[in-house]
Amino acid sequence: MISTTSTYRQDILSSTGHFGPYGGTYVPEVLLPGLQDIAAAYDHLKTDPDFLDEFHTALREFDGRPTPLTPLPRLSAEIGGAQIFLKNEGLNHTGAHKINHCIGQAILAKRLGKTRIIAETGAGQHGYATAAVCARFGLDCTVYMGRIDYERQRPNVYWMELLGAKVVPVEDGSQTLNDAVIAAFKDWVEHPESYYLLGSAVGPHPYPAMNTFFQKIVGEETRQQCLDQIGRTPDYVMACVGGGSNAMGMFFEFLDDEQVQLIGVEAGGRGTQPGEHAAKVRQGVKGIFEGYHSYFLQDGDGNIASTHSVSAGLDYCGISPILAHLADEGRVQFATASDETALAAVQRLALAEGIIPALESAHAFAHAFELAANLTPDQVIVVNASGRGEKDLFITMRHFQPESLRKVGELLLKG
Ligand SMILES: Cc1ncc(COP(=O)(O)O)c(C=O)c1O
User: Fold this and answer.
1) Are the C-beta atoms of residues 215 and 97 closer than 8 Å to each other?
2) Third-level CATH fold of 66-95+216-400
3) pTM above 0.85, yes or no
4) pLDDT at 221
5) Ligand 1 in contact with 200 (CB < 6 A)?
6) Is CATH 3.30.70.360 the right assignment for the domain spanning 30-60+96-211?
7) Which of 200, 278, 313, 331 is the most buried (most CB within 10 A)?
8) 98 is known as an active-site residue
9) Whose CA is nearest to atom 10 of ligand 1?
10) Is the pLDDT of residue 1 over 50?
């Protein structure tokens, strides 16, 4: 349980899966022994020097860490307010922050003697990273992906398959991330000897705390880079929020720095009506789903509501129980950015700074640009660029250059 008497960081690290009223382990009985094994292994390995050495070596040698903290001088000048910096998680191997927790969990799975990995994916980044670490560590890999995401994130499906993973399109429900999670859980119930490599700071204990632990390298590097590059901590730190892994990774190291304001940006989609967005903190209701207690988007009868976001990675009905608690505590503030403003942020960052962010990350940039205009040049905003934008080729091309997309389609059909 997170209390306010000790530090947030200590409480998350020592937690047994309860964060205020949120978290827990609400799963079918058949999964309990597997989860207990993972929780016990995590509890032991998080302070085991051999494990930590293997994890950090892989982060350096396979993933390419550390990632840079990049100032955005042209954009900051154009906006005319605060200085904006970007933490470039898009430069990780496979293109996003997801590989940090995939490496950690793959090493843990190996230590548990597991040979088969199951995963779910939305944007495909978690699936792509899972497929890469499975190839690297010699593990069999099956990835579930909602049919809509399977179609709109085709490049990542191709990369996963090239890396030897079996990618299974899920035809049920809204055919997005939520349905992929349910399909992965079903597989795990049928094959409890497999390891479920869950892709965000969500799910039953120990996944929320464990993925935060494997992702906290992002904020640790950022905090030190800020001290080295600007001589102090930033005023604002921002990250987009789907389930919450890149946000928790970025925020963790700053949680006990009271002077640093932390802002999570959710998908505002195309409106505020149910089914038009994925804003859990703003419009969600407390409930239990997919093994944990948190805020979920629900209809009047308590069923999970459909969600929408132009970015597959934010198109999810729930939020990390840790973030739900930090939101209630007021330690993390929440905002939304719409599909339109996220797309505009991709273009603005590309033109002014030569960096194309993932559509997910662009939500955080859209909000940062709005906030920066109301601040002063002595203030600093750091934005987590959780991924790079190449995977969004077919979505952004349809928006910015529909004619080019049509031509690509014609060329492909000609063969
Ligand atoms: C680049 C990128 N950023 C953010 C997310 C959202 O996930 P999370 O909230 O767990 O960081 C995803 C999910 O696929 C992603 O691919």
Assistant:
1) yes
2) Rossmann fold (3.40.50)
3) yes
4) 98
5) yes
6) no
7) 313
8) yes
9) 245
10) no
